Amino acid sequence: GMEKVRLPSKHIWLPDVVLYNNADGMYEVSFYSNAVVSHDGSIFWLPPAIYKSACKIEVKHFPFDQQNCTMRFRSWTYDRTEIDLILRSDVASMDDFTPSGEWDIIALPGRRNENPADPTYVDITYDFIIRRKPLFYTINLIIPCVLITSLAILVFYLPSDCGEKMTLCISVLLALTVFLLLISKIVPPTSLDVPLVGKYLMFTMVLVTFSIVTSVCVLNVHHRSPTTHTMPPWVKLVFLNKLPALLFMRQPRNSCERQKLRQRRRAQEQREGGRDGGSVGGGPALTQAVLGQACPGLEEAVDGVRFIANHMKTEDDDQSVSEDWKYVAMVIDRLFLWIFIIVCVSGTVGMFLQPLFQNYTGPAQRGKWVCLWN
Q1: Is 277 exposed, middle or buried (0-12, 13-18, 19+ CB in 10 A)?
Q2: Which residues contact 364 (CB under 8 A, 6 or more apart)?
Q3: DSSP string, 85-106
Q4: Residue 65 phi, psi (nearest 5)
Q5: CA distances from 346 to 85, 104, 203, 350, 351 (A)
Q6: 4-7 and 103-107: which strand pairing?
Q7: What share of the chain is helix, strand, coil (3-state, %, to 5)?
Q8: CA–CA distance, 284 with 302 (Å, rounded to integer)
Q9: Where is the Neurotransmitter-gated ion-channel transmembrane domain (predicted)?
Q10: DSSP assignment, residue 117?
Q11: Per-domain residue ranges for the chain?
Q12: 8 Å CB contact between 331 and 239
C-alpha cells in the first residue's frame, strides 16, 4: 500500500539540467534534497538553488526602466531523444517570492524552444520582466534637478542692473554638472543607450548654457550708450513698439512723457528756425549786435545761457537713448523668459512621458516546469 518513498537524491540518477547563461560558473545546486519516488515510477525532485545570470541592461528610461532577464535551462549532455523538457505552465511560480524594495515583477512568462534545423534540440526559457521602483530616484535626483532648472528661469526675470545675473547662471550650471557626475556613478556604465535622467540633465545644461549666452547679450544691450551705438530704426520698431504689446509689457510713463516733450521741443525749434530764416535784415544776428553795443556783458551772458541750454538738451537726449537701450534689454529678457519657460516645460513633460509608452506585459501568474527523462 506504499505509494511514495523519499530517497537521497545522490542514490538515484539525476538529469544534468543546468542554467546555460550562467554568470558565476556554479552549475550545481546548493543542496541535494531527497527525491520523492512514486509507485508508478515517476520521480519528483525539487532542490533549492541560487542562480546568477547575465542580462542586458536597458537604461534608456532609467529610473523608469523595465528589464527583461532571460534564463535558459537545458540538459548539458543529453539531447531531446534522451531527455525531453516539458513546460507544464506558461508562467513561473511565485509561491516563495519575497518582495523587493527596488524592483517589481511584472511577468514571468515561460516557453519551450525547439530548433527546426536540429530535431534533438530543446530548452525551457523564462523571461523575468521586472520594473524599477522610481520613488528613490524621483526624490533624490529628478525633483532636485527640476528645481535647479527652474532657477534658471529666474535669470531672465533678474534685472540687468543686478550684478548677480551671470553668477546665478554659472551656479545653476555647476549644480547640474554635479548632478551629472552623481548619475554617472548610479547608472550602469553602458554606451548602448543614454539614460532618461542623463538626457534631461544634458537638455537642462544646454538651456542653462543658452541662458548664459543670452544674458551676456542682454547685458551688452543694457549698457549701450549714444556715444558707442546708434539705435537702428528697425530696433525701435520691433523692440519699442511691436514686441512690448505682444509680451504684455508697458513702457514706463516717464519715458513716454519724455519722448513727447522731446518731440514737442524739436517741433518748436523747427518753427523758430523757420521764423528766423524768414526775418528781414539778419533778424537775431542784428538784434544780438545791437544788444552787444548797448550792453557789452549781456552778449557773454546770452552765450553762456545758450551753451547751458544746449548742453542740457544733449544730456537729456543721451539719457533718453540710454533708457531706450535699457528698455530694449528688458524686452529681450522678457522674450527669452517666455521662450525658456515654453521649451523647458515642454521638454520636461515630453521626456518624462516617454516611459508611459513602454510595452508592459500582463501581471505575473503562477506555474512551474518539470523535466521528464527516458
Answers
A1: exposed
A2: 91, 92, 94, 105, 106, 107, 108
A3: EE--SSB---TT----SSEEEE
A4: -90, 160
A5: 52, 30, 12, 6, 8
A6: unpaired
A7: 50, 15, 35
A8: 12
A9: 141-352
A10: T
A11: 137-357
A12: yes
**88-98 pLDDT tens trace:** 888 888 888 88
50-105 pLDDT per residue, tens: 888 888 888 888 888 888 999 999 998 898 888 888 888 888 888 888 888 899 99
Angle between helices 296-352 and 253-277 (to 10 degrees): 140
Which has the closest alpha carbon to 105: 373, 374, 360, 367?
A: 360
Q: 3 near 38, Cβ under 8 Å?
A: yes
DSSP 145-194: HHHHHHHHHHHHHS-TTSTTHHHHHHHHHHHHHHHHHHHHHHSPP-SS--
Neighbours of 209 (CB within 10 A): 14
* Contact in structure between 207 and 185 (CB atoms under 8 Å): no
| Eight-class DSSP state of 236 | I
- Cα angle 165-171-174, degrees, rounded to a multiple of 5: 145
pTM of the model: 0.68
Sign of the C-alpha dihedral computed for residues 294, 296, 297 and 298 taken in this order: positive
* Start-to-end Cα distance in the chain: 26
Report the alpha-carbon distance of residue 58 to residue 51 in Å, rounded. 21
Helix axes 296-352, 143-157, angle to 10 degrees: 160
Phi, psi of 167 (to 5 degrees): -60, -40
Residues 44-47: contacts with CB under 8 Å, at least 24 apart = 45/9, 45/14, 47/9
Sign of CA dihedral 348, 172, 207, 234: positive
**Sign of torsion, CA 255 257 263 265?**
negative
How distant, in Å, are the alpha carbons of 13, 29, 48, 55, 149 from that of 18?
15, 9, 13, 17, 51
3-class DSSP assignment, residue 6: strand
Give dist(CA 47, CA 53) in Å, integer: 18
Nearest-10 crossing angle of helices 196-222, 165-186: 170
| Grid cell digits, residue 99 | 518582495
Residue 360 pLDDT > 60: no
CA angle 172, 174, 178 (to 5 degrees): 115
